[in-house]
Amino acid sequence: MRYEDETTLRKIGEVLPSELAQVEGTVTSSEVAYRPRRQWLVKIADDGHELVLRFLNFYGSQQKQLSPGTRVRARGEVRGGFFGLEMVHPSYRVVTDDQALPDALTPVYPSAAGLSQAYLRRAIANAIDRTPLPELLPPGLVEAAIGPEHALPPLAAAVRLLHAPPPDVSETALSERSHPAWLRIKCEELLAQQLSLKRAQAARRRLAAPALGARVPGGLLERFEAALPFRLTGAQQRVWTEIRDDLGAPHPMQRLLQGDVGSGKTIIAALAAAQAIDAGYQAAIMAPTEILAEQHLRKLSAWLAPLGVGLAWLAGSMKAKEKREALARVASGEAKLVIGTHAIIQDTVAFDRLGLAVVDEQHRFGVAQRLALRSKMQSSGGDAMPHQLMMSATPIPRTLAMTYYADLDVSVIDELPPGRSPVLTKLVSDSRRDEVVERVRAAALSGRQVYWVCPLIEESEALQLQTAVDTHAQLVAALPELRVGLVHGRLSPAEKAAVMEDFTRGDTHLLVATTVIEVGVDVPNASLMVIEHAERFGLAQLHQLRGRVGRGSAESVCLLLYASPLSMGAKARLQTMRETTDGFVIARRDLEIRGPGEFLGARQSGAAMLRFVDLNEDAWLIPGAQEAADTLLRAHPQAVTAHLERWLGAREDFLKA
């Protein structure tokens, strides 16, 4: 965590108040005082000058240890006390008269109750002595990756230096992790990650997949394209060409389709599914929530069912009889397109011939679920792996795309469909709540629909927030002329579906909701959104929620209601939302504010995160690590295996998920 400098000693007579110092002296008195509270006072003297060591928490064994006449070395902040200079709760050790000072800074490690720093230091120093860290990489490889201006130590020397730095090392370079020893560690870690991903990509290229590229004259894809009521944008055309080419290859596609909220990713998934079905295979589309999965079902049914495509729905809330029938239709191949939640990857689901799996908002699934999907795909129908398309409305910042997503091909839809109006975002203090309610009334009476989003369902003592249930009751009372709906995660799927259906049809003017509407809800007539306690939401979530309006041609507004005072982070998030609607700018700021966990869903595993590399500070190391990984894979395969074993061991699978 940090270091303490125990390599120098100061005379007691020379130290000054507010100074952090290490002194040495002989104990002249040791007594427990009871006023104003129980405390232990130890006086030490050196050349006639005295200093008091004051302890508020102590044990009898410590008192025996520091009896009068004992020589002690103490380190802490010097303060002016009632009896002269003192240190409160200093770190100390009993020493002999001629005991040498340490020749390195003393490390301080994260600890837990009952685990002392002295024990940890001994155990870690012992482990370092017993562990050989031979150089596994070809000489000069890491140095070439980082550039000739950085002289890096060997790995073993870097590890030893970081655990016991000499006193002349810059403490700033150590704490900022810019010292050459840190750079060595970071380069090796990044290299292991790049090797793992590139090796996974190469292994996938060796797998067989059904080639779904042949165009069928008069087939489903052709009829679907002809029936579309709109033209694809230039970006959608480009992305569709990339995906169609991948589907025609004899190895599995693994492509990430990025597109901002409302950019039209679902139509691309539908085209890919049509191509798979034309080739005689099944397609599956999996979403993280039932509301989002139902939204896909509604859209794709409207597009593909009239063209004779058999669809199946799979979700955890289904009745046993419905589920049995759906499973039978999937297993027989009668259902060409399967849509649902993670129920799709359960053991009971067997596909006839799965050719394409589409995963929407894949970072919302846990790592274990993503690994289950991967193994489900590997075991479906013979030796061939299905193609996989992942979709995300949370744009991935470039540094993440170069590290965690390095084994994926990435397609980006970077333009919105014509007719979409940008959403105007305003920040409003919750002291002006009555004005906001009036604005909602005016919008609803003019024929527009409104969302009102709340962060919690029921009151929590820890977070005294306006909740969905209370807000619904208040708005019903305040707006008697409007029909006000309520949707949240604790409603049954049937109740949720009924409320959403009413809103989609236009029967409900105002929908009070929790974040269950964050993804997938598409109501073009909704042009006003109020987000209550916006300071409590993350940037990606605010951006997703705002994307539920602005889907029609009317000018749309998003009001962010906030409670003062705002923390620095909340202020930065709300400011970003007001300044930009560009998902990529928002994603970059989000990475700066919160780090990569949110994009990766890695909080759910903890195992896949880079432990030493900071993607904001260390992005400059990535290109060199990628080049070094290519060199190693091409010319030194044994070094690759040894390096991955050292750095990742059994965690390599988590990276791939």
From TrEMBL:
InterPro entries: ATP-dep_DNA_helicase_RecG (IPR004609), DEAD/DEAH_box_helicase_dom (IPR011545), Helicase_ATP-bd (IPR014001), Helicase_C-like (IPR001650), NA-bd_OB-fold (IPR012340), P-loop_NTPase (IPR027417), RecG/Mfd (IPR047112), RecG_dom3_C (IPR045562). This is ATP-dependent DNA helicase RecG. Its EC number is 5.6.2.4. Plays a critical role in recombination and DNA repair. Helps process Holliday junction intermediates to mature products by catalyzing branch migration. Has replication fork regression activity, unwinds stalled or blocked replication forks to make a HJ that can be resolved. Has a DNA unwinding activity characteristic of a DNA helicase with 3'-5' polarity. It catalyses: ATP + H2O = ADP + phosphate + H(+); Couples ATP hydrolysis with the unwinding of duplex DNA by translocating in the 3'-5' direction. It is an enzyme of class 5 (isomerase). Residues 246-413 form the Helicase ATP-binding domain. Residues 446-592 form the Helicase C-terminal domain. The keyword DNA-binding applies. The lineage of its organism: Bacteria, Pseudomonadati, Pseudomonadota, Betaproteobacteria, Burkholderiales. It holds the Pfam family DEAD. PROSITE patterns: HELICASE_ATP_BIND_1, HELICASE_CTER. GO terms for biological process: DNA recombination; DNA repair. Keywords: ATP-binding, DNA damage, DNA recombination, DNA repair, DNA-binding, Helicase, Hydrolase, Isomerase, Nucleotide-binding. GO terms for molecular function: 3'-5' DNA helicase activity; ATP binding; ATP hydrolysis activity; DNA binding. Belongs to the helicase family. RecG subfamily.
